[in-house]
Amino acid sequence: QVHLVESGGGLVQAGGSLRLSCVASGSISSLNRMGWYRQAPGKQRDLVAVITSGGSTNTNYADSVKGRFTISRDNAKNTVYLQMNSLKPEDTAVYYCNAPYGSTRFLFSWGQGTQVTVSS
Q1: Nearest by Cα to 25 from 9, 1, 8
Q2: How many H helices and E strands in the chain?
Q3: How far is CA 32 from CA 17, 27, 56, in A?
Q4: pLDDT tens-digit map of 20-59
Q5: Can you spell out the DSSP letters for 44-75?
Q6: Which end of the chain is less enclosed by CB atoms within 10 A, N or C?
Q7: Integer Cα distance of 35 and 28 in angstroms
């Protein structure tokens, strides 16, 4: 079973930047899709960004983060990144990564996530 460990979160002022990392304990090179998700207090976990690779690399973002966040992956390091710029207080949440398949399923158990707090 592959384990996912997210890191890089913290407290930042609005307008600041953070870079999150998600390291998998096993290879992710064969995984077509990897994604970042976030869950704010009292809310459901939502998709933030997905990166698809296999021939060509494609990315998709939630409307709320388009133009501010960038997802990338380094298969050699079994790592997925989320560069977050121009952070807003509404980006405050616990951020998780996982490998989605189908419309609602995920390949791995959820990790502990990494807390991102944006102050106004």
Answers
A1: 1
A2: 0, 12
A3: 27, 12, 11
A4: 999 999 998 889 999 999 999 999 999 999 999 866 789 9
A5: -EEEEEEEE-SSS-EEEE-TTTTTTEEEEEEG
A6: N
A7: 12
